[in-house]
Amino acid sequence: xxxxxxxxxxxxxxxxxxxxxxxxxxxxxxxxxxxxxxxxxxxxxxxxxxxxxxxxxxxxxxxxxxxxxxxxxxxxxxxxxxxxxxxxxxxxxxxxxxxxxxxxxxxxxxxxxxxxxxxxxxxxxxxxxxxxxxxxxxxxxxxxxxxxxxxxxxxxxxxxxxxxxxxxxxxxxxxxxxxxxxxxxxxxxxxxxxxxxxxxxxxxxxxxxxxxxxxxxxxxxxxxxxxxxxxxxxxxxxxxxxxxxxxxxxxxxxxxxxxxxxxxxxxxxxxxxxxxxxxxxxxxxxxxxxxxxxxxxxxxxxxxxxxxxxxxxxxxxxxxxxxxxxxxxxxxxxxxxxxxxxxxxxxxxxxxxx
Length: 354
Fold this sequence. Notes:
The chain is α/β, with parallel strands linked by helices and 354 residues long. Helices cover 45% and strands 15% of the residues. It contains 13 helices and 12 strands. The strands form 3 sheets. Strands 2-1-3-4-5-11 form a 6-stranded parallel sheet, sandwiched between helices. The protein has a 4-stranded parallel sheet with strand order 7-6-8-9, with helices on both faces. Helix 1 crosses helix 3 (42-55), helix 6 packs parallel to helix 7 and helix 8 (182-195) runs parallel beside helix 9 (211-226). The longest helix is centred in the first third of the chain and has 16 residues, at 84-99. The protein starts with 15 loop residues before the first helix and ends in a 10-residue tail after the last strand.
């Protein structure tokens, strides 16, 4: 009977013999499973893989085999590469990675938090120099705890977790954070609308539990509070950061007979859908209703009318993420960077009643 060992999660001491002992097989059987070149019974393979997970063996094995070196790769983890917000950050990541002599590996998660965790774990097994996760974080303790575990695991083998457009995991967590002033951008845009005379502003695209949405809505509310006003909760609609939500949300507002003179869309894609619905209902923008977005992706200029929006420095976010992660020992005090945002005024807004 093989000798049992205790779990050593996060400990670099695990060996093939430890895995073999936990799985109840020989060390040579573990080697066959790792090599994948010799047939192993499915049940035996399952026991070995389970033992490897429990002992956190895979990362440690790579660390020993490669002598602490990484594989000259930067992993870029996004929800959907076809989205313009992610595509332009990806361009910055790729440009900086190339300048640093690294290959860039793209991984998509389709908005699934569990898929994010799975991809990050795979990338730590592959020992990428940096694993860059882009987009808002979900307010889920188990998810945050797992990401914290990965941050420490990556750090132990000389890699780095980089969070782009999402808040830090907490004090003492070895991760690089590159944010933009999400709340400040929404505050500035809402203040512009309110001081232009729009007292009834609808908000489309509140995504409960998503940090990006929460920060933007916080700026929206703070601007109202500063001017002694309160947003109408009936004008704040839950949805997704999608064109279809903007379209359906605007139709819902119009069908309800709600009184509003402006629409703050959570993203430019949401704004595109809202503009389509308003146009179909023969509501003139900006004569009857002003519309604003967030992100300033190229689509904003192609819409009719051209969209007033909040500019996010997409490519610089990507470049900074790679630069700070790869040079963290030279820049130890610069591992949390917040880039500025600003509003861009175009043709989709005007003072009400002009």
